[in-house]
Amino acid sequence: MGRDLFGSVVHNLAGLKVLIDAGVIRPIRPDKLAQVAVTTARWGMGPAAGYIASAIISPDSPAIIDELGTLTFAQVHSRTNRLAHALSHAGVKEDDGVGIMCRNHRGFVESTVALAKLGAHALYLNTAFAGPQLTEVVKREKPVAIIYDEEFADLLEEAGRRRKRFVAWCEGDKTKDPRIGDLVETGLEEAPVPPDSASRAIILTSGTTGSPKGANRSSPESLDPAVALLSKIPLRSQGVVHIAAPLFHSWGFAHFTLGMLLGSALSLNRKFDPESCLAEIERRRAESLVVVPVMMERILELPEEVRRSYDTSSLRVVAASGSALPGALAARWMDAFGDTLYNLYGSTEVAWATIATPADMRAAPGTAGRAPRGTVVALYDERGRQVPPGETGRIFVGNDMLFEGYTGGGSKDVMGGLMATGDVGRMDDTGRLFVEGRDDEMIVSGGENLFPREVEDLLACHEGVAEVAAVGVEDERFGQRLRAFVVPAKGQKPSEDELKSHVKSNLASFKVPREVWFMDELPRTATGKVLKRELKEMEQAPKGRRA
Question: What is the set of domains in the chain, with CATH numbers?
Answer without folding.
Answer: 74-218 (3.40.50.980), 443-537 (3.30.300.30)
